[in-house]
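Quick one:
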Amino acid sequence: MIKRSGRSLNVAVIGGGLAGLAAACTLAARGHKVTVFEKNEWVGGKAAVHHQDGFRFDMGPTILTLPSVLKRIFDEAGRKLSDYMELVALDPQWRCFFVDGSALDLVANIQQMKQNLDRFSGKPGVGEGYDRFMKISKKLHEVSDKFFFWRSVGGIGDTMEVSGAFSASVLVDVLSLRMGRSVAGLVRSCVKDERAAQMIDHFTQYVGSSPEASPAVLCGIAHMQTEEGVWYPMGGTRAVPLALEKLARGLGVDFKTSTDVASIQNDGMRVTGLTTTSGEQYSFDAIVSNCDSVRTHRELLSGSEAQRRFDKRRTYEPACSGVVLYLGLNKRYDHILHHNFVFSRDPHEEFDYIYRQGKPAPDPTAYVCAPAATEPAVAPEGGEALYILVHTPYLRPDHDWSKMLPEYREVILDKLETTGGMKGIRDRIVMENALTPEGIHKRYRVLNGAIYGLASHGRFVGAFKPANRSRDLEGLYLAGGAAHPGPGMPMVMMSGWIAGDTVDQDTRLSKAGT
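Output:
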């Protein structure tokens, strides 16, 4: 447990998503008074749950990696994560299905994976190429830990502040980041089997961006997952926000659910409080916004100088959105694992449709989560609570998903039947629901229905999101997938920890300067 000396602040957290909960726990553990404002009746943001006809579905994230991030938040309060939830390791981590009828399992052990790849590809050197890629990924992870993670970063200059002078060792680290290269380019320079490369590309899908346009530094995600594994919280990923909420309440955090924030009040220099949509006004010393960073400025700070400065600094592109099908099946498929990818025939075509043309891909990749083998309680006996996610473009003005969904549903189910080998899936469906980009936009107040916040496109600046400490308004801090370090369950929780830690650091620096 980290104990801080210094004055206690009265802090608001706007949004009770995973990042907001992480920030609230971190701040409360360090002695600050925290109030969480959440427009929905529940907390947890996208990590919500849907119950229907005896089936239970995680509505948003389903893959938990880097449990060390979650553990660090609980360590702040001197609590054990294991006292709040049960985590089950999954290995193989994914099963991958390809259009030629082949399948490949991703396993954590690199030596075993090398052997699997050599057998799978029938080509000499593919396993060695994977080993070489993973060594590069490890280095990228190490440098990210050193310069990028666990601190407020908004650009390359912020990464240098930790070390002071620009030394030769720093230069070596910076060069190792493969600046100017894309994820897809780095992957294919090492791995010469296109199917295996397509599998590795999809580590980037944690951030909802094209591997052909994303910086190679994001290849570090592969080592992060391999090192710490893929985990399933019993009770589903919904168990994560429930555990964080329990921790927060135990630390004295006040929750105001069903309370929508209309604006952040400020005097032009720093925040002074907030106003809810019902007209209630509250005064605060600092505010952590777990709302999308762009929408925070455009909507909660509309017309302010802070908004103008934010919009002038850089144009941010939304990450991709997606269609999620929640299918209750009366019978499981034995050949699929807990996590699966059913791959497109041509990733270049798929990414071109999604990220350049702004249209749903005619032959998409489908992520399929089938949790009943790990936790049978998600479905009636013998059944399956199938979660299918297909990435789509973020919302465009001409998109009407009430009309687009029925046709695209058939495209998705055809893909599962053919490439995924899930024959007769329509006959097994006894319950069905769906979430579209329009629903995501309205339900979670994200930018243009983007699941993953802001796109990580740009080979030099793509890894950088708005910093957790606002550059435009003193006392404002940002957390969530549209703030540093970006999207994905562990990263958004890390962003919440960074926001909370930065508030606390600034408080102590302010006290020292008085």
